[in-house]
Design a protein that fits this description.
heterodimer; A: 217 residues; alpha/beta; 5-stranded parallel sheet; B: alpha+beta
Chain lengths: 217, 410
């Protein structure tokens, strides 16, 4: 599979919204192009469909009208293995519900991803954990950590792969500003290193990345 | 791409650590045991059936099935001489005119006495015999082995397979004589002494069993030998035949039975459904059917166990796929469970089949047979095991795909 340089939305709309009168949106029903190397912040009130957008972009759902193209290819033509490769090599994702394995330790949750991708090195991931103040929690089962701590583990895990775009669905909703800034710095460094695009969503507590293109959902 | 994690954690190991939770060893052992029992019954029955078949049943290649042997029904009337049990030339001509008859051949009986003797296991055996012959065109044996000319040292004979069975299972065991296979019997020369009724003329000959028949309960010699012996030992005697062999166009034709009924005739040697081979085949079929049923049930045990296990692990499976794990890797732990269960049952079955074979191999080798049943049994076990495993692999794949979410092809 090729590197994904752009993600194009053309008349995209979740099917549940078809019969509803939705407010004017810069995402739904609009032509929109996310480009590699740029940062986007999709803002909305709850229920606006932020997580739906992330799920469409990550191949978790396809109950939408309109078209979604990676480069020029319609993602409806993607097979399961195309999507799985996309998830390993091209699009990183931090889901809102975090999707950690509660019975595994924080470190094993990260290793589970590293075992699959082998990029970056485990020492790099450990440095990120240290910067986020998580060094002392590596051997705790993820289920025993606070939501804020789990969010940091899940963030580090989402960075443990090569990617052209990273989707961050409310990545810092449970973090204080200090941790938000550290997380933002790590994401910015890693995105810059990989030349990747960042697409983040927020209901009011965004990841503090500068120069984000703000889009109203 | 250089990470320490790659060396110490493979995706497969990580996935299997997660997904093997909730595996019930007892359930998988339960499957393996029932699969083993089912396979052993099916394959054991097949093996026994195939190995024992040569003792009971072989193709009767000498007399084609569209040849009927008919004789007059024996009643007290013809025993008392009021009705003849032999066919007159008129009766034979009438039969030959029937539309379902292609040709009619007469059985010629020996008009002399026959003594047969063999050397079996160092002990001599002799018995009074009788011969019959039918025209050579009714005997489906290569010309080379079914012919006799004056001066030939050996006379080929075809005997009823029943005689061999009678000898093996009735006479030999009671008299302490060795049992004989068809192959062995054919190798033993038969000394024949033919005497005229008054004992004044004698012909000595050597007989060789050229084949066995299920459909003729007699001892058959070539027509040429019969003609020579009859003319030498009982010149002038030309008794009417008591049995006829008829080549019919369709053996199942109801017109045949109607004609036979009207003329007081009956088909001879048509054992068909009542033969031991049929009973053996039915028994083997029934046992195999039961075994197949057990195997099928065990298949469902495994299917349900794996389904239950995957249902319990559905969230874990979903999350692994969310991380980008290939479907194959996610399915691997379940496939390994299936492979272990099926492989274990298969190995156990094959071991037991060999052990079972050892118990009767000595009996079998008495008959000069080695038996190919073990290969059939093993082959069938392999095929059934592959089917059970394939069915489960398919179900695992479906479940992993459904955990992936969208309806897509791999």
């Amino acid at each position: 599979m090729q590197r994904i340089d752009s993600i194009t939305l053309s008349g995209l709309l979740p099917r549940v919204f078809i019969s509803e009168n939705i407010p004017p949106s810069e995402v739904w029903r609009s032509p929109l192009r996310f480009e590699r190397g740029k940062t986007y912040l999709v803002e909305a009130a709850s229920g606006g469909g932020k997580s739906s957008l992330a799920a469409f972009l990550y191949g978790l759902r396809d109950d939408y009208e309109g078209k979604l193209l990676f480069n020029e290819r319609d993602t409806r033509t993607y097979t399961i293995s195309d999507w799985q490769e996309t998830r390993r090599r091209h699009i990183a994702y931090l889901p809102q519900e975090l999707a950690l394995f509660p019975e595994l330790t924080a470190l094993d949750n990260i290793r589970l991803k590293l075992a699959l991708t082998g990029d970056p090195s485990e020492s790099m991931a450990l440095k990120w954990m240290e910067r986020l103040g998580m060094s002392g929690r590596l051997d705790y089962p993820a289920g025993k950590l606070s939501i804020g701590q789990q969010q940091r583990v899940a963030l580090v895990r989402s960075l443990c792969q090569p990617f052209d775009f990273i989707l961050l669905d409310e990545p810092v909703s449970h973090l204080d500003e200090a941790n938000n800034r550290i997380a933002a710095a790590i994401v910015a460094e890693e995105a810059a290193r990989r030349g990747a695009g960042v697409i983040m969503t927020s209901v009011g507590n965004p990841l503090l990345l500068p120069d984000a293109v703000r889009l109203k959902l | 791409m250089s990470t320490e994690s790659q060396t110490s954690f493979s995706p497969k190991r990580m996935a299997s650590r997660l997904l093997r939770r909730n595996i019930s060893g007892a359930r998988i052992a339960g499957f393996a045991l029932s699969d083993f029992i089912g396979l052993l019954i099916v394959c054991g029955a097949l093996m026994l059936y195939i190995d024992s078949r040569p003792l009971w049943d072989s193709e009767d290649s000498f007399i084609r099935t569209d040849y009927l042997v008919i004789n007059k029904r024996v009643t007290s009337a013809n025993t008392m001489g009021e009705r003849r049990s032999s066919f007159t030339p008129d009766e034979i001509a009438d039969l030959g005119k029937q539309p379902w008859v292609r040709s009619v051949g007469k059985f010629t009986s020996s008009a002399y006495r026959v003594d047969g003797s063999v050397d079996a296991g160092g002990r001599g055996m002799r018995t009074a015999l009788f011969f019959e012959s039918i025209p050579d065109e009714f005997v489906d044996v290569a010309r080379s082995s079914w012919h006799w000319r004056e001066g030939d040292a050996e006379v080929p004979v075809i005997i009823s397979r029943d005689y061999l069975t009678l000898y093996n299972f009735g006479f030999a065991s009671a008299a302490g004589l060795p049992q004989m296979s068809e192959g062995m019997m054919s190798g033993i020369p038969l000394r024949l002494t033919l005497r005229s009724d008054d004992g004044s003329r004698v012909i000595g000959a050597s007989g060789r069993v050229a084949g066995y028949s299920d459909r003729l309960n007699t001892i058959l010699v070539p027509q040429s030998f019969m003609d020579y012996a009859n003319s030498t030992l009982a010149p002038g005697a030309d008794p009417d035949p008591s049995r006829l062999i008829v080549d019919v166009s369709s053996p199942g034709d109801v017109a045949i039975d109607r004609y036979l009924e009207e003329h007081g005739l009956e088909r001879a040697g048509d054992k068909g459904a009542s033969s031991a081979a049929f009973i053996l085949r039915t028994a083997a079929g029934t046992v195999m059917g039961i075994g197949l049923l057990v195997t099928l049930l065990s298949f469902f045990i495994l299917l349900l166990s794996i389904s239950l296990l995957m249902e319990k692990n559905r969230d874990r499976l979903h999350t692994l796929l969310l991380l980008g794990y290939p479907l194959k890797t996610a399915a691997a732990p379940y496939r390994r469970v299936v492979a272990a269960g099926c492989g274990g049952a298969f190995l156990l079955t094959v071991i037991c089949l060999w052990a079972l074979r050892l118990t009767y191999l000595s009996i079998l080798s008495n008959f000069g047979e080695t038996g190919s049943g073990i290969w059939w049994g093993t082959g069938l076990a392999a095929v059934l095991t592959l089917l059970v495993a394939a069915g489960n692999f398919l179900s695992i794949r479906r479940r992993v795909e459904s955990a992936w979410g969208l309806k897509r092809k791999c």
